[in-house]
Design brief:
mainly beta, three-stranded antiparallel beta sheet, 1 helix, 3 strands, elongated
Length: 69
C-alpha cells in the first residue's frame, strides 16, 4: 500500500465484547485510476467496536480485513 496517498494506519479491533460487532457501514466505488474496487466507511454505529476504539473515521478506506477466531 506504499504508493497510496495519505497516512496508512494498521490496527486490531476486538469486537468480541460488542453485540453489534465492528459497527461499521461501508460503501464501495470502482476506482478507475487504481483499477480496483475501493471500500469506504460511510457510518460508524455508536454501540460498535469501531466507535468505542475511536480510530476509524467516516471516509476512511479499508484496504484489508483479517479475521481471527
Amino acid at each position: 500500500y506504499g504508493s497510496l496517498p495519505g497516512e496508512l494506519h494498521m490496527f486490531d479491533l476486538d469486537c468480541g465484547s460488542h453485540s453489534s460487532g465492528l459497527g461499521l457501514c461501508l460503501s464501495g466505488n470502482r476506482d478507475g485510476a487504481r483499477g480496483r474496487m475501493s471500500v469506504y466507511v460511510s457510518e460508524i454505529k455508536p454501540d460498535g467496536a469501531a466507535a468505542t476504539d475511536g480510530r476509524v473515521r467516516v471516509g476512511d478506506e479499508l484496504l484489508e480485513v483479517r479475521t481471527t477466531s
